[in-house]
Amino acid sequence: MERRPEFSRDQRAIEGLPIRLVIALVVGVASLAIMMSMLGGVGTISETEVDVEPVPVTVDADTSTDVELTVIGDDGNTVSEATVIVSSESAWLDSAAKGTTDDDGQVQLSLEPELKQGQRIGTLQVDIVPPTNSDYVDDQANTEIVVIES
């Protein structure tokens, strides 16, 4: 007659159990962290970054120039009722120029930038304040207007 081992007296069966539980717990927590980070990005999907397309992109210094600025979301749609602010950066404006886009997402601003003595090229900064009841955001740098010596 073959004798079967009695599992109630066998102490070896429990030796590998704690380490397997720890490994399963670590893998489970890591998987949960990955899933939560994927779900964490779901709320930001509805936000659309905006940028501006100035025409012309380059303007002459010490000359008054009308610049047409079109605000466009990264979804390709124009943005109406956005406030566009053009201010000094490495080129100088007497005061910041501001306007609100129309239904076509466009605003026209008259700019008369100046360059410092000896400076041949400079830029004007363009900031966008998206409409308040929209999912548009302006978190990244926008296209700049380049000012050149005339």
TrEMBL record:
Pfam families in the cross-refs: DUF7382 (PF24107)
UniProt domain DUF7382: residue ranges: 47-109
InterPro entries on file: DUF7382, Ig-like_fold, Invasin/intimin_cell_adhesion
Keyword vocabulary terms for this entry: Carboxypeptidase, Hydrolase, Membrane, Protease, Transmembrane, Transmembrane helix
Transmembrane stretches, start-end: 21-42
Molecular function via GO: carboxypeptidase activity
Protein name from the UniProt record: Carboxypeptidase regulatory-like domain-containing protein
Provenance organism: Natronosalvus hydrolyticus
